[in-house]
């Protein structure tokens, strides 16, 4: 009986730690930066500014690209990726969001580990990946720099 209580205690502590980690990340994103806006403020700004530029095809493509994300985190991923797509569209001063802009924004908003799925999905749809190769190096990396050195210590 005491083993069950100990295991239950470890489970509760683990779940609280995981929840605390995600809450702390959200808290850090909500802190204002030098310009007075937080990361979440900028995401909402880009989504709101480009809401009218989205067509049904591009919305469907975005939904297809975020489909492998677990449902619990899908809204957050969709918001982040849509904001990056909106930022790219505003930088290009586009009148409507195109398929190319969706792909470019997705590449820039996602870590390198997600690019394998994107390449596979683009191949299935018959879309060439070569015009976007230069963007894959600009996206977020999976690891911090010199992680191997820290690991050896």
UniProtKB/TrEMBL annotation:
Source species, domain of life: Bacteria
Keywords, alphabetical: Membrane, Transmembrane, Transmembrane helix
Pfam family, one: DUF2621
Bilayer-crossing regions: 6-24
The protein's name in its UniProt record: DUF2621 domain-containing protein
């Amino acid at each position: 009986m005491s083993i069950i209580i100990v295991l239950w205690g470890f489970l509760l502590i683990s779940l609280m730690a995981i929840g605390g980690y995600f809450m702390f990340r959200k808290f850090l994103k909500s802190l204002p930066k030098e310009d007075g806006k937080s990361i979440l403020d900028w995401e909402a700004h880009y989504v709101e500014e480009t809401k009218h530029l989205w067509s049904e095809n591009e919305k469907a493509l975005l939904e297809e690209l975020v489909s492998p994300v677990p449902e619990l985190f899908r809204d957050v991923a969709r918001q982040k990726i849509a904001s990056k797509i909106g930022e790219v569209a505003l930088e290009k001063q586009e009148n409507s969001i195109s398929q190319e802009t969706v792909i470019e924004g997705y590449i820039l908003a996602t870590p390198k580990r997600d690019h394998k799925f994107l390449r596979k999905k683009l191949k299935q749809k018959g879309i060439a990946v070569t015009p976007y190769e230069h963007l894959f190096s600009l996206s977020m990396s999976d690891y911090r720099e010199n992680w191997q050195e820290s690991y050896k210590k």
